[in-house]
Amino acid sequence: MTEKIEDFRSGYVAVIGRPNVGKSTLINALVGEKVSITSKKPQTTRDRIMGVLTTEDAQYIFVDTPGFQTKHSSELLDRMNKSVKSSLSDVDAVVMVIESTGWRPEDEEVLKLLPHDAKNVILAINKTDEVKESEVILPLIQESMKKFAFADVVPVSAEKNHQLDVLLQVIRKFLPEGDKLFEDDIYTDKSPRFLAAEIIREKAFRLLGDELPYGVAVMIDKWEENDQGARIFATLIVNRESHKGIVIGEKGSKLREISRLAREDISAMLGKKVYLEVWVRVRKGWGDDAAVLKSLGYE
Ligand SMILES: Nc1nc2c(ncn2[C@@H]2O[C@H](COP(=O)(O)OP(=O)(O)OP(=O)(O)O)[C@@H](O)[C@H]2O)c(=O)[nH]1
Ligand SMILES: [Mg+2]
């Protein structure tokens, strides 16, 4: 028994990469719970979000980060990039994620954030289900090793749960010996309130056309909860008057769909019935307004 405790490891693992490579999907798959929202659109994640996995012999505290990007600029995007950089300090290991289709210039930008002599960076080549693994992966591993002295390279598919056990074993080597930092049943550092707002934002991201989601933020106005159920009132904030109509949709159909899907997920998360009311409000240029960003909880 004593031996087992000595063997236990725990520590922090930052997951970084350009937008859309599957960082949040990977963390959700590793943790086995939905801690971070995902979508096929880039720049889905806006905050640093912790996802905790506790196993027999280790506790992994994953830090999901916004996709690092250098193309556009706004107060929000600058903050997102800053949070990527700061998440790199004080972690025991870093998992950098790229796609199986190969290196892109945006991936190289991410690489530049890492100290040259870092010895704790693991490369995860994600979405192996999308390529012919046998032909593509080996040359890609070789190419990757030339770009940076990765401690290890692991091809994975976050969506198909492929090779995630291998990735965990590789990461474990970098965790220091030590006790659990979180209780067994804790799987995120975020409150149900934050997660509910994120779930609503995820549905907006998934249901709205290409440009619109980036101008959307969600605020929880009221949260009433007892053993039987929860009553939640939220506001979807958009940048422009013209966006309001799009979010609401014909006879309110779009907003109803966003609310319905969000209610289902929030109800599953809380394990109880949920009444959800979502309103839409215009707040021009909220993405560049420091006060609004602060009130929305962006660091
Ligand atoms: N085929 C396939 N798709 C994947 C896999 N992992 C993630 N995806 C998809 O890739 C898209 C982006 O996933 P996210 O997890 O939101 O990516 P992200 O890196 O967190 O993106 P940002 O938060 O915007 O930086 C989603 O449509 C996922 O379903 C995978 O292993 N295989
Ligand atoms: Mg993400």
From TrEMBL:
A Pfam family assignment: MMR_HSR1
Keywords on record: Cell membrane, Cytoplasm, GTP-binding, Membrane, Nucleotide-binding, Ribosome biogenesis, RNA-binding, rRNA-binding
Domain KH type-2 as annotated: residue spans: 208-284
Binding site for GTP: 17-24, 64-68, 126-129
GO molecular function: GTP binding; GTPase activity; ribosomal small subunit binding; small ribosomal subunit rRNA binding
Era-type G domain boundaries: 9-177
Sequence segments annotated as region (G4): 126-129
Family matches, as CDD domains: Era, KH-II_Era
GO cellular component, one term: cytosol
Region (G2): 43-47
Region feature (G5): 156-158
Family stated for the protein in its record: Belongs to the TRAFAC class TrmE-Era-EngA-EngB-Septin-like GTPase superfamily. Era GTPase family.
Job of this protein: An essential GTPase that binds both GDP and GTP, with rapid nucleotide exchange. Plays a role in 16S rRNA processing and 30S ribosomal subunit biogenesis and possibly also in cell cycle regulation and energy metabolism.
Name this polypeptide is given: GTPase Era
Naturally occurring in which organism (per UniProt): Turicimonas muris
